[in-house]
Design brief:
disordered N terminus; alpha+beta; Serine Threonine Protein Phosphatase 5, Tetratricopeptide repeat; 8 helices; 4-stranded antiparallel sheet; Fusion Protein Consisting Of Minor Coat Protein, Glycine Rich Linker, Tola, And A His Tag, Chain: A, Domain 2; globular
Length: 341
């Protein structure tokens, strides 16, 4: 007999320069009965999944418009994650005392807990292939390493620990073979779901992700990565180290010009790139099904036929642009104007 747990964690945020505390009050969860949802089954399974959901909390504190914007592991748990998030209740966000809609993100892990064996660590079979693949990457035998990575994915990658370790291993392989599209995908997955990793690997993931985020001018996530280093209790990360990193990123950000991103969209799969400039343009060759500005202090729906320029205020807090398409395509997102982080 096994029990499945839904574990949640609010995504850590690097807070943008806030408006006055009297102006903006974030939405706060008011019910606590969602901490653990369970489902039982007689089928023993090690298969697990992790999902990042973006959703809107309306003026009445009700959750709506839930979208999965990142997933790792078994996609069959996406419906479970959406059901989970839909049961949350909030005290609404407020600006100058008036309730406003707000955007939130949350990570939900669908995990299997068994009475007969532990499912909270990597299996011996996983570690055997993981070590072989890692050594082959070190030895620059990338084709052989790929063979073990493929076997890892098909035969041994089941629980959340293995899922995120595999994402990290894939990122290393992609880096050395210079497959930047796959590197981007895998290092982001490993960074996003890093809480499932041992601290020493977590540190390597964050450092690699930080360098990548800076190189692609993803400044919001670069600041997130610095905060993440500061939140590993077992690692020494001094205030001086943090100040030096922040100064470096601040300097690059301050002197950055237009930021142009090519974003691949899968059919009806939402993405949520984070924004760090005051003016945003979105260009697509095919029709889009949804474009929505999601900030912690406001939510804006756009008429898909008349989108011109999307503007971000210096008072807006942590904004992302949620994008969906019924047809798989690549869109261009350009950010320009003032820097406000």
């Amino acid at each position: 007999m096994k029990k499945r747990l839904l574990a949640l964690s609010l995504v850590s945020t690097f807070t943008l320069p806030p408006v006055s505390a009297d102006d903006f009050v974030p939405a706060q969860v008011i019910n606590k009965n969602y901490d653990q949802l369970t489902n039982t089954s007689s089928r023993a399974s090690r298969l697990e999944g992790i999902n990042l959901s973006s959703y809107v909390v309306d003026e009445n504190g009700q959750v709506s418009d839930i979208e999965i914007v990142a997933t790792a592991g078994q996609k069959k748990y996406q419906r479970e994650a959406i059901d989970y998030v839909s049961k949350l209740n909030y005290k609404s966000a407020r600006i100058n005392g008036n309730a406003v809609p707000t955007a939130k993100t949350i990570k939900v892990s669908s995990q299997n807990v068994h009475a007969s064996f532990s499912n909270d660590q990597a299996s011996p079979g996983f570690f055997d292939d993981y070590k072989k693949a890692s050594q082959l990457i070190d030895d620059k035998k990338y084709d052989e390493a790929k063979t073990y990575i493929t076997e890892l994915e098909s035969e041994h990658t089941k629980n959340t620990v293995e899922i995120v370790l595999l994402a990290w291993l894939k990122s290393q392989h992609s880096y050395f073979v210079k497959d930047w599209e796959k590197f981007d995908k895998h290092i982001y997955e490993a960074f996003l779901f890093r809480d499932n990793l041992p601290d020493q690997i977590k540190k390597r993931v964050i450092k690699n992700a930080l360098q990548w985020f800076i190189s692609k001018q993803d400044f919001v996530r670069a600041y997130d990565a610095i905060d993440a280093l500061d939140n590993i209790d077992s690692i020494t990360f001094s205030e001086q180290n943090k100040a030096q990193l922040l100064a470096q990123v601040n300097d690059i950000y301050k002197n950055s010009g237009e930021i142009s991103q090519q974003i691949s969209l899968e059919s009806e799969q939402a993405v949520l790139p984070l924004l760090s400039k005051s003016e945003v343009e979105l260009k697509s060759d095919k029709p889009l099904s949804k474009v929505q500005l999601r900030c912690e202090n406001r939510v804006v729906n756009y008429d898909l036929s008349t989108i011109d320029k999307i503007e971000i205020s210096k008072n807006d807090v942590r904004c992302g642009l949620l994008i969906k398409s019924t047809i798989a395509q690549t869109v261009t997102l350009k950010q320009s104007g003032k820097s406000f982080l």
